[in-house]
């Protein structure tokens, strides 16, 4: 579900998040959440998000390099015209034509349970589809398998890893 912006805010949002941004529906009308592939990901904010979801820390120089070499980087931002806050993230690697793999999908625990993870995944898949990517795989922790299965992802056939296959 997509939320529409108030009159006069579309230029502001485009300036902060780029042309391809998408507003997310939220249960709180006072809260604006924005998906964007164009807004730069701040490494300290990303590290804070990863801490919040319980991931082990990675050296920032390696994270910077991984982001630089990613095919797609998507942030989910709590909109504030002065200081937007990163509350969700996903990135993809691949050739941009045939295959892509989704990595590092995270939504801050305070924002989970209201459909934002699904909105993030829908946005990522739409962007990959727009690139012409034919197949998408995903690696996920065992604790979130149900989340992806509920969205139509299929567990890797040999059931040895949490790898999923999806063809949009």
Report on the structure:
- This protein is α+β, with helices and mostly antiparallel strands and 168 residues long.
- The protein has one domain: Gcn5-related N-acetyltransferase (GNAT) (Aminopeptidase, 3-Layer(aba) Sandwich), CATH 3.40.630.30.
- It is 29% helix and 26% strand.
- The chain contains five helices and eight strands, in the order H-E-E-H-H-E-E-E-H-E-H-E-E.
- An eight-stranded mixed beta sheet has the order 1-2-3-4-5-6-8-7.
- A hairpin with a 7-residue loop joins strand 7 and strand 8.
- The radius of gyration is 16 Å and the shape is globular.
Structure characteristics:
Aminopeptidase; 5 helices; alpha+beta; 29% helix; 26% strand; disordered N terminus; eight-stranded mixed beta sheet; single chain
């Amino acid at each position: 579900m997509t939320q529409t912006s108030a009159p006069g805010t579309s230029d502001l949002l485009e300036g902060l998040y780029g042309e391809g941004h998408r507003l997310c529906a939220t249960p709180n009308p006072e809260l604006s959440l924005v998906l964007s592939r164009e807004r730069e990901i701040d490494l300290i904010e990303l590290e804070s998000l990863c801490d919040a979801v319980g991931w082990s820390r990675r050296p920032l120089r390696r994270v910077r390099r991984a982001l630089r070499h990613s095919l797609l980087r998507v942030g989910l931002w709590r909109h504030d015209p002065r200081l937007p806050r990163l509350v969700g993230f996903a990135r993809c690697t691949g050739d941009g034509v045939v295959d892509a793999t989704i990595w590092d999908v995270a939504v801050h625990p305070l924002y989970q349970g209201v459909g934002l993870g699904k909105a993030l995944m829908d946005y990522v898949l739409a962007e990959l589809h727009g690139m012409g990517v034919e197949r998408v795989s995903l690696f996920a922790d065992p604790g979130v398998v149900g989340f992806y299965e509920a969205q139509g992802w299929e567990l890797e056939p040999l059931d040895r890893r949490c790898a999923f296959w999806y063809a949009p």
